[in-house]
Automatic annotation (TrEMBL):
It comes from the Bacteria. Keywords: Membrane, Transmembrane, Transmembrane helix. This is Flp pilus assembly pilin Flp. The keyword Membrane applies. The chain crosses the membrane at residues 21-42.
Amino acid sequence: MSKPTMRDFARFLTAEDGGMSVEWVTIAAACMALLLGTFAIVSGGTENLATDTAQLTANMDVANGFITPVPITASTDITAD
C-alpha cells in the first residue's frame, strides 16, 4: 500500500460518496430528538389533564333516567324549527 499523498487527501475532501447516508442519519436523529422532546413536554400536561378530569367526574351524580318522561305519540312534532 502506498503512502497517501496530498492529491489523495484533496480527492477525499471533494468526494461526495456516502454523504447522503450521513445526511439521512443526521435527519433521522434530529427527528427522534424532536419527537422525544415533544413527548417530554406534552406528557406532563396530558397527565395533569387526565387527573383533573378523573377528579371532576368522580364527584358527579349520574341520573338513572329522565326526570319527566315525554310520551311519544303519532301527533308529537319532532321536526326542527
